[in-house]
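User: I'm new to structure prediction. If I give you an amino acid sequence, what do you actually give back? Let's try with this one:
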Amino acid sequence: MKKYLLTLFACFLLPLISFSQVIEWQNTIGGSYSETLFSISQTTDKGYILGGCSISNISGDKTENNNGGTDYWIVKTDSLGHIQWQNTVGGNQNDKIYSMAQTSDGGYVVGGPSTSFLSGDKTEDSPGPDYWIVKITDNYNSIEGKLFIDVNSNGTQDIGEFPAFNKKIVENNTSRFGFSEQNGNYNVSVLNPGTFTVAPNLFNYYNAVPATHSASFTGIQQTDSLNDFAFQPAGVFNDLCVKITPLGQFRSGFNASYMVNYSNVGTTTLNPTVIFFPDNDVSFVSATPVASSVTLDSIVWNFGTLAPFQSGQILITVNVNTGVPIGTLINSGVRIEPLAGDANLLCNQSYWEVYTIGSYDPNDIVVDEDTLLSIQFPNPPFLEYLIRFQNTGNDTAFTVKILNLIDTNKLDLSTFEFVTSSQPVDLSWLPWERNMQFMFNNILLPDSATNEPQSHGFVRYRIQPKSNLVAGDFITNNAAIYFDFNDPILTNTATTHIVLPTSIKEIISSGNLHLYPNPTNSTLTIETRMLIASGGKLIVTDVAGRMLLTKSLNNNSTKHQIDISSFSSGIYFVQLDGGKVIERGRFVKE
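Assistant: Good question. You get back a string of structure tokens that encode the predicted 3D arrangement of the chain. For your 590 residues, that looks like this:
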């Protein structure tokens, strides 16, 4: 982070910023390409006065009272950088000086224009170039400690007990937070002396011991360490989970890859079996590690013991059948067993639907829901984002950094949850940019010409939309991906639209499953071309994952009806489990 700060401001801050300084707050001010900031000073109420010039007539650039001539503009902010008022005065557009002022607390306020649209340049709120203002300070304190899984509940991290990484730790009074690193260590910074309380976000089946830690500071630039949290079992729970992630796009006639991440998130040691079900339009090629058994419709791995919070991964290569049309849905799946006695069966299987395409950019972002219904608010479901990257250069990449702007006006940052990644990754929230930073240190990512399947990587996380969104709103998300010291690669933009229930079209989950009418208010018909083996099941769940209905099926019919008249309005998910093949879809209850 400190290196990034120096890089960002080196043109005018290098003599004044040390490696210990952090950004305290930041804001942006509406602007246009023709505005120039040339003056800034602190006021007696600890606010700030900024001034500049503009020759633009663009709405929002503070010159609307002008009839086409050049104007000076002036802005008054409070101590947090929020605009209190603004005005224009006659002026000259020849002044083009960046400005910085030292504040009474020893920090610095910096302002300047930006014409970049890169994630992290502080201008994402503006449709055009913008002005930004940043307060920088080296007056902060650090609260440090580590998180670990304390299986034997003795308060000590023993050999074989794993760190709890990428878990959020929050300071209760200021809401400042940090994430635990791969070794479980964390750091939360606070800006003032006093007593502060930190607590980790909890997760299933474990209690944090202690529940909180208090840290006291008598001054500034102090560190309070050894604030460790031991996560101790709250009972005996078996819980295996699995996730499947497509590592790139799928093209007819070409190889493609999946990564399967499996983990033990319960409190007991288990012996997992992982089963991969390839879609009918792909053929299994190879896997690392090598599978225990391979048949035409399933590939099986039998693993040894898996301790609580131990995890592993499988890299699977498939070939997309030649002649598959562009736009064909590919819906391979994976399951982890044993199922008997598992505390949460909803995470024992995983799918991520992809569509075959032509040429593509391997660096992208996708979201699992492109549409949400207005009736799902004010309690919206999580959105799960997948950011993928590939080293298409000519040498190994040693580091990969992803800056992902979180639109905190539409996404609730407090609900952010890390899901999984292709390689170990450290998370940092950069509040001055509103970016979530994913840093892959020493990733040693081979180039695609040397090892195509291993040249891919990804991160997955989930986050809830703000509860006040309405029909007509939309949520966008994009990212900038940095390979070593190269310029960033910008991804596409993933968009989720909020619509009225009457705006959604019939949803077909796969080529084998058809749900109608959709939306419906009483009866739903599920039609499939798949023959159901004896013991097959149809399961309906809500957006929170709660199982609402189960129905045993047989191989005598490919059409089934269920009564959903008692369901509340909203989106629901159907899963048809035929044993070796699972089909999934969703429908809307009006």
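You can read the tokens as a compact description of the fold. Here is one thing that stands out. The first helix runs from residue 2 to 13.
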